[in-house]
Write a structure and sequence with these properties.
5-stranded mixed β-sheet, 3-stranded antiparallel β-sheet, 3 helices, 10 strands
Length: about 200
Amino acid sequence: NVQIMVAEKSRSQTKQNILVKTGQPNADVTIAVVDEGILQIKNFETPDPYKFFFSRRALQVNGYDVYPFLFPEYGKQLASGGDGYDLKNRVNPLPNKRVNLVALWSGVLHTDGAGNASWSIDIPQFSGDLRVMAVAYKNKTFGSDEKHIKVADPIVLSSSLPRFCSPGDEVNMYVTLSNTTGKQASVSINAKAEGA
């Protein structure tokens, strides 16, 4: 039984301590803390060793035939269609440098005599959901667990601006304020521009 103990809510730019209980002394543990948005892009599930080792597998046999040698025209048929298009050519080549991605990994940690391991992380300027994943193993025993940390500051401000402007351009800047406290708040916004 792997169990993660971590705060459910946090503010950005703080330090969080993650405690993993395995119930096995001297076990090995790895912990990952990743932005849920990144994981959703790849449909990534929290690693489950039991599901991996004991999953049903397709028959791993390759089939061959000699028809292309007997009938050369048979081997020249076009391959059937499908979803084999190249997704990497559809990725936006311009990275967004304004937002720091959160993907942290502890490396291999060793539990103490009580089966506990801890790891401290620095949460950067971030707003969203972080998934904490732990995988532990010792000899023939293994397990995993996941927890979530909701990271939000009391007032979250996000603005939309173009990546660049030419002299003389006029743009509208939209600002979204999110109040995560559950109480009413009075806020004033000032904006200033520098440079050309």
